[in-house]
């Protein structure tokens, strides 16, 4: 697959992801009648459903990262050429802001306006560490053991993490930056962005180290990809 196709897939996927996240947040808040729990439920379900569709749409083209933390992890695992890292991240960021702009136009909002939604403090930073650690753990584990279920596992994890983290699980530096340009239900104040991104990158690094150890990659000549325990490849069995 050419680099141009992969970058377009990352940009378009990121744009649609932000459209889902921000748009469902706006719609949920408008329809919930002040009930934040209902608005969050709508936001979480829409995001999970959107993720399944988007990963299935673009996974075979670019890998469907839509997330700089995932891209950095894939490059560290040698699944992505180092030369593609910066172009991938640039495409993700451009797509994320384009998605926010598209949603704002759909709902009659300014194209960009800085969020005033406060999200800061140790509890929220720890939440982002945990959310991103879990997300990368799901991606690495499933891609090395049962790759066909990865889109569904990622979406289910993010849906759950909306509810078990106090930060509502951004778990994505590009998403975090773009949501700072939306003073809506899904927004985050620009001054709170650095703390979130630092926690996300630390969580991703910790997960990459641990889960790549838990799930060693199968040898290149293995005929059964990642669907068997790596120990079965470790030592050749003597023949009778």
Overall description:
By secondary structure, this protein is mainly alpha-helical. The protein has one domain: Up-down Bundle (Glycerol uptake facilitator protein), CATH 1.20.1080. 66% of the residues lie in helices and 0% in strands. 49% of the residues are buried.
Brief overview, please?
The protein is 66% helix and 0% strand. The chain has 9 helices and no strands.
Helix/strand layout:
Layout: H1 3-31, H2 36-62, H3 68-76, H4 85-106, H5 122-145, H6 150-164, H7 173-179, H8 193-214, H9 231-234
Helix pairs in contact: 1-2, 1-4, 2-6, 3-4, 3-8, 4-7, 5-6, 5-8
Biggest sheet character: none
As a percent range, the share of helical residues equals 55-70%
CATH homologous superfamily identity: Glycerol uptake facilitator protein
Structural class: mainly alpha
Record keyword descriptors for this entry:
240 residues; disordered C terminus; Glycerol uptake facilitator protein
